[in-house]
Amino acid sequence: MVQRQLLQAYRREYQLLFVAIACFGVGRSLLIAVHRRHRVCAACVALPKHLFRADARAHHTDKHHRQSRYWLRQRSKHPASGTLRRGVWKGQFKVHVAHHTGESMIREQSMLTKETTQYILDEIKPIYVFNGHDHDGCIYKHNNHTIEYTIRSMMGEFGGYSALFEIRKPNPDIENFEYSFKICPFIQTKFINISFGVTGGWLVLFIIYNLILSFIRCYHNQFKKSSSSSSSSNQKYKKD
């Protein structure tokens, strides 16, 4: 299991970030690569959706990717090569759908093709695969013992989920690592909307209250001025 202190620090540090993602739909893709010599490297890059092409095998032939043991994609892999282990979504797998542009480029797709999926599993041979887009989330075990984690989406009706994957070295003298995965449910988007609505309502009431108060004060000041001027004129008339 993920260490409790690390999990608390993760939630504390990134709570605001995931609220922003849930509200504004900020898209990120994180590639975590652990080399065969256990050298850890991580890179966080923003990638537009049209760059996730199903058969762009040039991305898989890079030496750095060949040595990677962890693979994260925005699109799910083809599910025909494994069995579903656990997941909150009980429906059938969606059929592979791809929308092409006028230049035969893939603009959008529901999952990777079977050929690309098999290429990743056979050539890259990742231990863990992380992906997630508009999914309910599940854990999927492929036939080559690769475990694929589809992270529950943070946006919309999916309810603000995230996940923490920890890589730790229990003994500094031994080149051996332990890996832990933990689902981290954050505040749901409906509660964010409710909080925004309540805050906006109080803000509107505050503005209306101050406007009414300013009108009352203005009317009260004018009434005092008129009463004082009338009283002074009456006193002057009595003296005459």
TrEMBL record:
The domain of life is Eukaryota
PANTHER family on file? METALLO PHOSPHOESTERASE RELATED, PROTEIN TED1
User: Which organism is this protein's natural source?
Assistant: Heterostelium pallidum (strain ATCC 26659 / Pp 5 / PN500) (Cellular slime mold)
Q: Does the keyword ATP-binding apply?
A: no
Matching entries from SUPFAM superfamilies are given as: Metallo-dependent phosphatases
Q: What is this protein called?
A: Calcineurin-like phosphoesterase domain-containing protein
* Alphabetically ordered keywords of this record: Membrane, Transmembrane, Transmembrane helix
Q: Name one GO cellular component term.
A: endoplasmic reticulum
Ranges annotated as spanning the membrane: 14-34, 191-216
Which GO terms fall under biological process for this protein?
GPI anchor biosynthetic process
Q: Does the keyword Cytoplasm apply?
A: no
